[in-house]
Amino acid sequence: MRGAAAHAGWLRRTARLDRPAWLAWLACAAGLALLSGAAPLLAADAPATASGAAAASGSAACGADLAGARRTETARHVIAWRADPQKILVGRHFAIDIVACAKPGAPAASGIAVDARMPSHGHGMNYKAGIKPVGENRYRAEGLLFHMPGSWELVFDVRSGGDKPERATQAVMVR
Ligand SMILES: [Cu+2]
Which residue, of 5, 41, 129, 163, has the greatest Cβ tally within 10 A? Predict the structure, then answer.
């Protein structure tokens, strides 16, 4: 159980912080409880647009106005995203601005769900957040919080009409 050992080490190191260790343990246990079959914590639907489109001409063009954005992709979409604030801090809420661009020939995204997890520890976040469409192919997710330092993974599930959602992931290291 490498993950469990990592948690134990982290708990020992943080036991002297202002929060009692049992609270931190509870937080991680809650994360584990959420793991099994949990639906994505955040989901939003965007109104379908007739023109759809904003097809990405190369992934770098997606979200070009989001300075400093990082990009990941599903089979049919490029996801450009930027955290707000851009530097994600342990234990602090943050938001994510997202642009979903259809690859050439792909339908526009009709909705996105966002979640985050620590793959090496087997748990997710402890906080509920929300995501809403804020313009054509644009979304803003709010209320995310990484409660531990380490390797997190953002998970974007992109829907296109009634098709099976397609997933993009993004590794994020938080110290
Ligand atoms: Cu963890």
Answer: 41
